[in-house]
Design a protein that fits this description.
180 residues, Elongation Factor Tu (Ef-tu), domain 3, 6-stranded antiparallel barrel, 8% helix
């Protein structure tokens, strides 16, 4: 059986929690909205081939900056420990709708970033979470082949981000191509 086409990685299993099969999960997004809403999680160890394993979520709640969850089929600590290091994904369809002017990080990854002058600044390959705001990690289009990609970092704030068009997969940023 194959994985659903719309799976998005949203966290990873840190450890077992307690003795009754609960897992402790570090969410990729501090809000963890998708993890809290989804009724099924797909877990996969990054080093193992094959599809992810689907687990029904029986209970999930916040625990500091992490989440703790009881997944169907896990009833003791050793079963939960076996999931340590697994990536957690949910279907994109299970994400709650974003508020007006807000975006899920997963939706921004892969967008082309241009400035108002039309210069191609690169492609969003990830985001960083600073204490104040998110920062776009953009792989520059002038990255030399066969070498480590060159990146630029652009704060994801209104002062620099003019427009986000998810349908066109583009972001317009007030950023000069010579900045870096």
């Amino acid at each position: 059986m194959s994985d659903p086409d719309d799976l998005q990685q949203v966290g990873h299993v840190l450890d077992a929690w307690g003795v009754r099969g609960w897992v402790k999960v570090a969410p990729d997004d501090p809000q963890a909205a998708a993890l809290l809403k989804a009724k099924t999680w797909w877990l996969k160890h990054p080093g193992l081939p094959g599809p992810a394993s689907a687990f029904k979520v029986r209970l999930v709640r916040r625990h500091g900056s992490a989440l703790v969850a009881l997944l169907e089929g896990l009833s003791e600590r050793n079963a939960a420990l076996a999931l340590r290091g697994h990536k957690v994904a949910v279907r994109r369809a299970d994400f709650p709708p974003a508020d007006e002017g807000e975006f899920y990080w997963a939706d921004l990854i892969g967008c082309r970033v241009r400035n108002p002058q039309g210069d191609d600044l690169g492609e969003v390959v990830g985001l960083l979470d600073s204490a104040a705001h998110a920062i776009l990690r953009i792989q520059r289009p002038d990255s030399p082949p066969g070498r480590a990609p060159r990146e630029r970092l652009i704060p994801f704030v209104q002062a620099y981000i003019g427009e986000v068009d998810l349908a066109a997969r583009t972001i317009i940023a007030q950023w000069d191509a010579s900045y870096d």
